[in-house]
Amino acid sequence: MLPKVILTTAWAELEGFSDAETADFFTIDKKTASRADKNGACPRCHRVPNDCIKKFSSWEPSVYVERIKGVDYVVCLCGTVYYIDISIDVTGRGDSASTTGWQ
User: What is the DSSP letter of 36?
Assistant: First the structure.
């Protein structure tokens, strides 16, 4: 199992990263992303999204507080960039997270 570390742009500023270094570190080329496979994993090697180099979550603004929708962009350990449509029930009444293709 690989350890996970969550970094933020605030951390990068504290560490003295330049704007260019921060942009390179946190940027994922979304234009080259493929859709995840039918199980929500890497379309190339079929690793799960948590086995990744980087992951970026993009959330849609919502007027409904029961469910948050968005997209996770993932850079897999194999180097493939892919995306997963996600929907999270924040009320605690349903699935904690459901993803297109795997629930």
Answer: P
> Does residue 40 lie within any of the structural domains?
yes
Looking at the DSSP assignment, which residues form a beta bridge with residue 59?
70
Residue 55: CB partners within 8 Å, gap ≥ 6? 49, 72, 73, 74, 75
Residue ranges in the chain whose pLDDT is less than 50: 96-103
Q: Name the token pair of 22.
A: 């921060």
3 belongs to a structural domain: no
Q: Give the model's pLDDT for residue 69.
A: 82
Quote the number of domains for the chain: 1
The proportion of the chain whose per-residue pLDDT surpasses 90, expressed as a percent, equals: 26
